[in-house]
Structures are given as C-alpha cells and as structure tokens.
Design goal:
Number of helices: 9
Number of domains: 2
Bound molecules: 2,5-anhydro-1,6-di-O-phosphono-D-glucitol, manganese (II) ion
Largest sheet: 8 strands, mixed
Order of helices and strands: HHEEHEEEEHEEEEEHEHEEHEEEHH
Radius of gyration: 21 Å
Helix content: 25-40%
CATH superfamily of the largest domain: Fructose-1,6-Bisphosphatase, subunit A, domain 1
Shape: globular
Amino acid sequence: MRRGTTLTEFIIGEQRGFAHASGGFTALVSDLQLACKHIAYLVGKGALAGALGRSGSENVQGEQQMKLDVAANEIFLRTTQWGGHLAAMVSEELDGPYQIPKQYPRGRYLLVFDPLDGSSNIDVNVSVGSIFSVLRAPEGVSEPATEDFLQPGSAQVCAGYAIYGPTSMLVLTFGRGVNGFTLDREIGEFIITHPDLRIPEETSEFAINTSNERFWEPPVNRYVAECLRGRSGPRGKDFNMRWIASMVAEVHRILVRGGLFMYPRDTKDPKRAGRLRLLYEANPMAMIVEQAGGAASTGRGRILDVAPTELHQRVPVILGSKAEVERIERYHREHEQGLDRPFASPLFNTRSLFRGG
Ligand code: AHG
Ligand code: MN
Ligand code: MN
C-alpha cells in the first residue's frame, strides 16, 4: 500500500525550491515535530504516565502550572537546543529568554512557544496543543536579549501548532499557505492529510467566553447580540456557539470548517489588553489564519502589525472568517465615531423598533 508524504519529505521538497537553503531550517522543523510527537505521547498516556494534575508551581504570569505544562516546556527546550539552529528561545513558562547551553553551537533563528495550550483541559481529557513561532535572530547578536524577540508577527519565518486530540496533528505555514499533517502512530510519522487548508468565507459559528460579557466593549456586545438574535435579527440567520477553552482547538475548527474566535479586550483587569499572549499565541495563529485566507485582528488593526513591547504581552484576538473579522473591525470604527449610538441607547432592547444591522 502506498503511504502518503511525510512531513520530512514535504519540508525537504520545500527546501529544494530555495537555491541557497542550507537545510538548517529543515532540521529545526524536524526537531520541532519530534518535540510535538513526544508531547503527543505523554498527553495520550495521561494518568498512565502520571502526567495529570498540577505541578504545584506558578509561571512568571502568576498562572498555576500543570505537570504537563512543565514537562512540555522541558521537551521543547531539550529537543531543539542541541541542533545548532537556534540562537535563543522564549516560552510561556519561562521568565526571560533562554540561552542555548554553551556546549551547543548557536544558530540563526529564535523560537517562541506555548508548550501546552489549553492546559486547563488536560485533566478532563479535552484537546490541548502546542503553538510555536520562528523568527530570525538579528545579525551579529550572539546572546539574544528581550528586545531581539520584540519583532512584529509579520516578521515570522514559520508558525505552527500541534493539536493533541482524537488524532494528533501538526499544522504549519512557511508563508506559502497552510498544510496539515496527521500523526500515524504506528509508523511514527506525520503524514500530510490536509494540504492547502483554506478557511471558508461564510460562517454561522462563533466562539467567545460569554462569562466575560459584563467586561466586553460595546462593539463586541453588539456583534454577539446580533448573532444571538438569529434569523429574526439583523443577521437574518441562526448562529451556533462553541467554547473549548483551548485556542489550538478553536483555531483548528476554524481552519477546517470556518468560524470566528474572539478573546477580545475587556475591562476585567485594566492592566491587561486581553487574555492571549502576542508572541506565542496571537502571532503564530494570526499568520496561520491569514495564510489560510482568513483574517486576524485586535479589533482595531491587524495582529501581525502590532509592535511588541514585552515578551509576555497580551493582546485582544479576533480571528477567523474574513468577512466576520472585518465586520467586527467596522463595529469598532463605528463605535469610535459614535455611529452605533442606537445600539447603546436604552431604546435598543429586544422589543425596540430601533434595532438594526
Ligand atoms: P494556556 O493554557 O496556554 O495558558 O492558554 C489558555 C488560553 C487559550 O488556549 C484559551 O483560548 C483561553 O486561554 C481560555 O481562557 P478561559 O479560561 O478564560 O476560557
Ligand atoms: Mn496558551
Ligand atoms: Mn500554555
């Protein structure tokens, strides 16, 4: 029986399209896929490997770490530090830049990652994932510091995520479309199964944590209120809602069947612009979504254009089917111009004649 193209074969094929490619980048992707396979194995074993539960520690962002957050972070560091392709790394689980140990050669790339995304779902056996982004190290820098990582998402060389669900998959972009690979556990390889993923333009599905509704800004309130009114409302159709609490799983659903995902700016904690982190959650997912024909915005502009100021900076995230993202951006503009007043007024309630699209 003929087997499908492996991820290794695919990236070597891509590399051949570049006359000056040294193979270093291909080798880095190879290490990244090994890290994801190892984490897929641990996630799949769960309680059998003693992998569930809290580790008892906190990360720099004050979040309780799960045992698997710590283990996945270690796996990413150990699997990618030795190969000579990286100059330094940044992880959700580490305070500052991680320098490559002295015994290994340094390379030209920076790796930024969320080792385990959606880790609150681990103990309840719901899909989790890993997210990563590759940047170029600035020329002549031997020990990259914080400012060397503060590059806009538009500078990413590669972005990807692994999803550990009923099947484990790796979804990757090098800036020329998005491809999905499924882990064949028997032969131990990722095989291309979802070539050239494209986000459907139309959708009637949205994802947002509605328990935060009282903290949302008016444009988001307006969008969700209109969706909830369904066929008899201004949108003229019924919408469905999903919330998995794993960004990886939400983005994967959107890549496969379309939809909209929002973790918008809210007033819950005035010090935070949003919940998700720019460098290792928003930027890689924004690159993937754009490369698949969707859009990714803060509500006020493209995520990939945000100039980072901190390693663990948070941003509002609105991504998915392009027409929906553009609609919410328009609602933000209309709000700033005071054009959505009817929506904010007390006359604008479920029985009001003033409700409109
Ligand atoms: P992480 O597990 O890496 O900290 O990320 C969790 C993120 C993201 O995956 C998800 O969309 C969101 O947090 C869930 O937030 P709520 O707990 O507010 O639903
Ligand atoms: Mn995360
Ligand atoms: Mn995480």
